[in-house]
Amino acid sequence: MGEKIATRNAYGKALAALADKYPELVCFDADLAGATMSKFFLEACPERFFDMGIAEGNMAGVAAGMATCGFKPFINSFAMFSAGRAWEQVRNSIAYPGLNVKVVGSHGGLSVGEDGATHQCIEDFALMRAIPGMMVLCPCDGYEMEQAVKALVEYDGPAYMRLGRLAVETVTDEIEGYKFELGKGATLRDGKDVTVIATGMNVQMALKAADILAEEGVSVRVIDMHTIKPLDEELVLKAAKETGCIVTSEEANVLGGLGAAVAEYLSGTYPVPVVRHGVEDEFGRSGVAGKVLEAYGITAEGIVAKVKAALALKK
Amino acid sequence: MDHKALALTAAKARLLGVDMVYTAQSGHPGGSMSCMDVLTTLYFNVMNVDPKDPKNPDRDRFVMSKGHCSPAVYPVLALRGFFPVEELKKFRSIDGHMSGHVEMKHNPGVDMSTGSLGQGISTAVGMALAGKVAKKDYRVYSILGDGEVAEGQVWEAMMAAAKYKLDNLCAVVDVNGLQIDGKTCDVMPTEPLDKKFESFGWHVIKIDGHNFAEIEAAFAEAKTVKGQPTMILAKTVKGKGISFMENNAGWHGKAPNAEQFEIAKAELEAQIKELEG
């Protein structure tokens, strides 16, 4: 445990570090390089960095065209615009032909803070999950992000990855046995009463919630589900069987994201109570990020309340 | 191939195209017929492609940005030898993968899947940019509809192509003046196209899109342009070659019935016979 770094920072640095090793790696931004942190790639490899201006749809298409010629494009903008504005270009020009383009959305969720609802994308998981064959990722900390970027560069196919704005505590680097693998969740803490399956910075909240609940005698398993699609069904099923109830946690709308994926899967295989923690189908508001998260219950305490609801349903 | 042979090939492609739409009882004949002469010239006299090696990394590329004009693309590719003409019978059928809009994964020779208007030209810009980054000599071609240019993404693509000085990119607007809801000048006026594209940094050439000498000359001129992409504005007739479809927006996306198909077939067969004679 230790270093605090935003996943967008870790992403930018990790991608830039791979520029030499992969001559086919190309990086695009839509006038937000200083915020998405694609600027690190620009500094490392200006000849393979392309600023497409404020035109996300075209950026997605140009990247698709480059992918047909054997390049590995990463396109960057805020989640609202790469997953939202350019959704149909991602669907039709990238995912439908199965092209090797990585769509990256930084500043995902409410933690955008002051900029308010227009820039607080809480729908990206649902939007990207709904596209056939699209991989969807949201690593929780800097260390995991670095592994995710390395894995994504090697993965041949369309994928979406959300990055966070805020600096978050690094937790995965000191977990014994932690190994990053696309499509495989990581159990960060074992427990027998309930499992919290979280993604992004909600993983850190889930660990905190597990501490709070431990004091009350509740044993919480915490799964870091960095890959939302394809879902690690084996791990989810095991958790459902062994702990009997599940809480999902994400900084996104409770409709269509990680919680939906887990509930959809378990309802057809091994029905147990699944309580979803996230944004309750409403738009965000402006405010200091921490205050906004608090106002919407996206906190460790929010998870604790959901765990109690799940335990009550289990009994 | 001389111009008479090109005209003959285009007439054969038109017959295959209208047959596909008739057999499937759906599809888009109007805009397919209007761009057929340009497309035939590209594949038979301009582009460096090899039907035996459709994925060659050094080949020229083509993107049909108005992806509904599959009844132009598939017949031309079949006649060029990328796949047997018999495959065209599976157009829009669940028994095959010849999708209603141009599809790349299952159809050899197709360089990009298209259909959602405004998107194809961006991918063509990407292919041209890839050629520059990889220092390859291939060229990239694309056909857009004049209704399609109402899509804002087209202009995003125009700016990007000019920014990166993509002189290996040559696009064509098939200016047939008609779209689903009627005349392009009524639905959403896009003229003056020449001034618009020039102001976006493109080299513009205006031609008669059914005159093979002008078509060939325009593509030759585009190859000599340095430091900027080229836009060819090809004035065409929607439904070209089939009397009752010509200049009629109603044939944008409609299949002929048996009686209409017989008339279309007879007219195109007469053109073929005359050109063979």
Descriptors:
heterodimer, A: 315 residues, alpha/beta, Rossmann fold, 2 domains, seven-stranded mixed beta sheet, five-stranded mixed beta sheet, 14 strands, B: 277 residues, five-stranded parallel beta sheet, two-stranded antiparallel ribbon, 43% helix, globular
Q: Which ranges of chain A are low-confidence, i.e. pLDDT below 50, for 5 or more consecutive residues?
A: none
Distance between the termini of chain A: 35 Å
Oligomer: heterodimer
Q: CATH homologous superfamily of chain B - what is it?
A: Thiamin diphosphate (ThDP)-binding fold, Pyr/PP domains
Provide the CATH architecture of chain B: 3-Layer(aba) Sandwich
Strand order of the largest sheet of chain A: 3-2-4-5-7-6-12
CATH class of the largest domain in chain A: Alpha Beta
Class inferred from helices and paired strands of chain B: alpha/beta
Please state the overall shape of chain B, judged from the principal axes of the Cα atoms. Answer: globular
Task: Please give a quick description of this structure.
Chain A is α/β, with parallel strands linked by helices and 315 residues long. Helices cover 40% and strands 20% of the residues of chain A. In chain B, α5 packs parallel to α6.
